[in-house]
TrEMBL record:
Keywords: Adaptive immunity, Aminopeptidase, Disulfide bond, Endoplasmic reticulum, Glycoprotein, Hydrolase, Immunity, Membrane, Metal-binding, Metalloprotease, Protease, Signal-anchor, Transmembrane, Transmembrane helix, Zinc. This is Aminopeptidase. Belongs to the peptidase M1 family. Residues 57-229 form the Aminopeptidase N-like N-terminal domain. It is a single-pass type II membrane protein. The record marks 421 as: Transition state stabilizer. One of its GO terms (biological process) is peptide catabolic process. Residues 264-470 form the Peptidase M1 membrane alanine aminopeptidase domain. Zn(2+) binds at residues 336, 340, 359. InterPro entries: Aminopeptidase_N-like_N, Aminopeptidase_N-like_N_sf, ERAP1-like_C_dom, M1_APN-typ, Peptidase_M1, Peptidase_M1_aminopeptidases, Peptidase_M1_dom, Peptidase_M4/M1_CTD_sf. The active site is at residue 337. GO terms for cellular component: endoplasmic reticulum membrane; extracellular space.
Length: 934
């Protein structure tokens, strides 16, 4: 492969002042006999996945020439190196590319290097016949060539269709985590930071953008950064720009016909970059920040320094046709990527085992920043859901610690999961509540200032958050922090966590980051005495797996006697608290600011149920949501009986707040989803009937309009969609009438945005309605509208349509392949489609892992999404038999497969234990009036 001459290498003549000399040397190197340049005979001189630390890059000069007709690219990389130990070997990364004309540019002159390849680890060895001396600097130069990738990573091709049907092509990059090595030879590990000077050769009809601004023909040299943050795009995009208060130019790039959907994102990016500039007290270090909407993009977005890339749905917003949740989603994703410009880009984890330092922080900062910059979005209403999602994965024995050792690219990819992002954010939120927001802010500014342009490990963060007032790292000018430190010695019982011990942030946080899972705290109230004990919450029938876990838990609690939040750090397996007086109820983990669950033993749950039934607003909606979540989770491990959890759910008929309502649905709906996979229509319909009755009052009060706050609008969409899918007559009648009017106008009348999902879902039930919706989908340029139509089409009972959609999404002509995972998972949620989705996943497995990459969150999302509602031994055996037939190369070692087995086993156990109880309870609470097939 290395000696292939498919791509003739040329150096651009305007490259460097020494360019003529280089040309002569390239010719000389090219004339060198092949065995001087390449050799397959010699053993590869390095046997580890991680690169040696003998040399490190200081600066890359890159010339890249993509060809959007032949879909390949050529280039030259010139890398300046620092030598830390005498060596005659340079090991770096290159993946699936032809390498040629490899030269060493040493002070003594230029000479060719011999090249060996180790494809298994994506490594090249450059062998010199003389020693590179410690302390000296050298340069190596490599010609390289490859095809533009067909996947969504590396330097890959993307396309879009104009409104006239013309297909246009572009090329874009996605290098996180280990894909820069597929675009140019490099030291592709986050700790090898360097500066990059990039030059793109392109046709006049295209533009090129990269991390830095364009200076005449080159992009300005970057700041010191990791390879995974390098980015460049060659396209026919247009852009719109504004300047922040701090003088940074912000531009949004999109395909020409969608440039009018960029105004909202542009304003949000300006507002958020200014916010972070002030919050972190470190000026954004680049002159510009571009945000580009890429037509083909696998993840949600990527934080490349100075050129963040997004899915079109993550950036484009149409004021008339986008929904409240679109607005929320777009601002969150921009807030996330811009937070990374500091957390991740300026200060980078040393290795992927601490990915959470990047991702947990960015996820957490979405909520901190939007709470201040966009208070009307009420992001607080949605944070808890992230902690519940993390607990879902973290309650399995196949979970992993937030900080966990990883070596190969598949394991690195698997780190991009709910544990790194959502659990990371939730434990940071707990720490902020614990230290107070002011102390937390001082500590993270200290961390960012101390480690700018460097790499860090977990403990660096904990050190920065400890003894913040003793540090001299902060500028004198930060008045807020001086005030905080001068006030700190004033005692306050409510905000004091610990007696006189000095707070050891690292000792506390190591228990949350270095062991997997989370604690279940059991509370027993005996008069004024409160007995506490902790254990690992784990969905398993093997008790030995919960042994040996101990957390330092920042407990918070309030009681019926006092709304003051009391605090207590539980460091031991058991402990006792004393209340000043006897109380009717006690609620631990106030607002669920802590990442733990609480079980109220003895009569504890009954007193909470009484409180919810008589005066549910005595607790916040976050508290109510966490109680709903916890009581049903405790049923899974046999701590609480199912009828107790169902008794608690009865209060939901009076609930109006989004977090508690959606959590109620989140616990009750899966119960009938499990039954849909077993043939038991009578009980299934009884369960569906119970849920419709429970929320009937709230559903009936919804207006079919776009009025109200963001949370009210998101809830309206949710409730009306549920009611229509469940065949609730008033909803079906209204949605049918609106769909028919919309269809009669050929889609010209505009429906209220919040109700479109409910209307589309009802319309998609008939072949004519489905076909009409598909036609509108195909011709729409509005990303959020397309997204809603696509989801509605997957909810149809028409199996031939479901099958066709999955096949079309795989082909990628009419429906983008990037949307395939959502289509497959949505079809698997459809009672008419779950077998089709499983058959599709099996039949196309090898294509999918090639397109979406082993270990990626996309593959994991499909595997768990398609299988996690199975509840029979037959399906478990079928799933085991398929995944068991895979080899390591085709994914047998992926964590998501273990999670799938565990989830199905847990479902089977749940059904075996609880079906009789469920039947008896529903019979006792039989609702009035018949329910046809809900």
């Amino acid at each position: 492969i290395l000696t292939s001459t498919k791509f003739p290498m040329t150096l651009n003549t305007a490259y460097h002042s020494g360019v003529c000399v280089i040309h002569a040397l390239v010719k000389q190197a090219a004339a060198t006999p092949p065995d001087r340049q390449m050799s397959d005979k010699e053993p590869f001189p390095w046997d580890r996945m991680r690169l040696p630390k003998t040399v490190s890059p200081i600066h890359y000069d890159l010339i890249i020439h993509p060809n959007l007709t032949t879909f390949d690219f050529t280039g030259v990389a010139r890398i300046e190196l620092d030598v830390h130990e005498d060596t005659s070997v340079i090991i770096l990364h290159a993946k699936q590319m032809q390498i040629s004309n490899v030269l060493l540019l040493a002070p003594e002159g230029v000479r060719p290097l011999q090249v060996l390849e180790n494809p298994r680890f994506h490594q090249l060895a450059l062998l010199s016949d003389s020693v590179l001396t410690k302390g000296r600097k050298y340069e190596v130069q490599l010609g390289f060539a490859a095809n533009l990738s067909d996947s969504y990573h590396g330097f890959y091709k993307s396309s879009y269709r104009t409104s006239t049907g013309e297909v246009r092509f572009m090329a874009s990059t996605q290098f996180e985590a280990t894909f820069a090595r597929g675009a140019f030879p490099c030291f592709d590990e986050p700790a090898f930071k360097a500066n990059f000077t990039i030059r793109i050769t392109r046709e006049p009809r295209h533009i090129a953008i990269s991390n830095m601004r364009l200076l005449e023909d080159n992009f300005d040299t970057t700041v010191k950064m990791s390879t995974y943050l390098v980015a460049y795009i060659v396209s026919d995009f247009l852009s719109v720009s504004k300047t922040t208060q701090h003088g940074v130019k912000i531009s949004i790039y999109a395909v020409p016909e969608k440039i009018d959907q960029t105004a909202f994102a542009l304003d949000a990016a300006v507002k958020l970059l200014d916010f972070y500039d002030d919050y972190f007290d470190i000026p954004y270090p680049l002159p510009k920040q571009d945000l580009a909407a890429i037509p083909d993009f696998q993840s949600g977005a990527m934080e490349n320094w100075g050129l963040t890339t997004y899915r079109e749905t993550g950036l484009l917003f149409d004021a008339d046709r986008s929904s409240a949740s679109d607005k929320l989603g777009i601002t969150k994703v921009i807030a996330h990527e811009l937070a990374h410009q500091w957390f991740g880009n300026l200060v980078t984890m040393e290795w992927w085992n601490d990915l959470w330092l990047n991702e947990g922080f960015a996820k957490f900062m979405e909520y901190i920043s939007l709470d201040i910059t966009y208070p009307e979005l009420h992001v607080d209403d949605f944070f808890l859901g992230k902690c519940f999602e993390a607990m879902e994965v973290d309650s399995l024995s196949s979970s992993h610690p937030v900080s966990t050792p990883v070596e190969n690219p598949m394991q690195i990819q698997e780190m991009f999961d709910d544990v790194s992002y959502d659990k990371g954010a939730c434990i940071l939120n707990m720490l902020r509540d614990f230290l107070t927001p002011e102390a937390f802010e001082i500590g993270i500014i200290q961390y960012l200032k101390r480690y700018s342009y460097q790499n860090t490990v977990n403990s660096h963060l904990w050190e920065s958050l400890t003894n913040i007032c003793d540090s001299d790292d902060l500028d004198e000018g930060r008045m807020k922090h001086k005030e905080f430190c001068s006030k700190r010695h004033v005692p306050s019982g409510a905000s004091k966590w610990y007696s006189d011990d000095e707070l050891d942030v690292r000792a506390i946080m190591d228990t949350w980051t270095l062991q997997e899972g989370f604690p279940l705290v059991t509370v027993e109230v005996r008069g004024r005495e409160v007995r506490l004990s902790q254990e690992r919450y784990l969905k398993t029938d093997d008790p030995s797996l919960t042994e040996g876990f101990l957390w330092q838990i920042p407990l918070t609690y309030m009681t019926s006697a006092s709304s003051t939040i009391h605090r207590f750090l539980l460091k031991t397996k058991t402990d006792v608290l004393y209340l000043p007086e006897e109380v009717d109820w006690v609620k631990f983990n106030v607002d669920m600011s802590g990442y733990y669950m609480v079980h109220y033993a003895d009569n504890g749950w009954n007193s909470i149920i009484r409180l919810l039934q008589h005066n549910h607003t005595a607790l916040t909606s976050n508290d109510r949501a966490s109680l709903i979540h916890t009581v049903f989770q405790l049923v899974s491990i046999g701590k609480v009986r199912l009828d107790t959890a169902l008794e608690l759910s009865l209060y939901l008929s009076r609930e109006t707040e989004i977090m508690a309502v959606t959590q109620g649905f989140g616990e009750l709906v899966p119960l009938y989803k499990l039954m849909e996979k077993r043939d038991m229509p009578a009980l299934e319909n009884q369960m569906k009937g119970y849920i419709v009755d429970l929320f009937r009052g709230l559903i009936d009060r919804q207006e079919w309009s776009d009025s109200g706050s963001v949370s009210e609008r998101v809830l309206r969409s949710y409730l009306l969609l549920f009611a229509c899918v469940r065949n609730y007559t008033p909803c079906v009648t209204k949605a049918t009438q609106l769909f028919n009017q919309w269809k009669a106008s050929d889609g010209k009348i505009s429906l209220p945005v919040d109700i479109t999902m409910a209307v589309f879902v009802i319309g998609a039930r008939t072949p004519e309605g489905w076909n009409f919706l598909f036609e509108k989908y195909r011709n729409s340029m509005q990303m959020s509208v397309k997204s809603r139509m696509k989801t509605a089409m997957t909810v149809t009972p028409l199996q031939d349509k479901l099958k066709w959609m999955m096949e079309q999404s795989l082909r990628g002509d009419v429906m983008k392949t990037q949307d395939l995972p959502d289509v497959v998972v949505s079809v698997s949620r459809n009672p008419h489609g779950f077998k089709l989705a499983w058959d599709f996943l099996r039949a196309n497995w090898h294509t999918l892992i090639k397109k979406f990459d082993l270990g990626s969150s996309t593959i994991s999302y499909m595997v768990t999404g398609v299988t996690n509602q199975y509840s029979t031994r037959e399906m478990l055996n079928e799933v085991r038999s398929f995944f068991g037939s895979l080899t390591e190369e085709t994914g047998s070692e992926m964590r998501c497969i273990q999670q799938t087995y565990e989830t199905i086993e847990d479902n089977i156990r749940w059904m075996d234990t609880n079906l009789p109880l469920l039947r008896a309870w529903l019979d006792k609470h039989r609702h009035k009036g018949p329910h046809e097939d809900l």
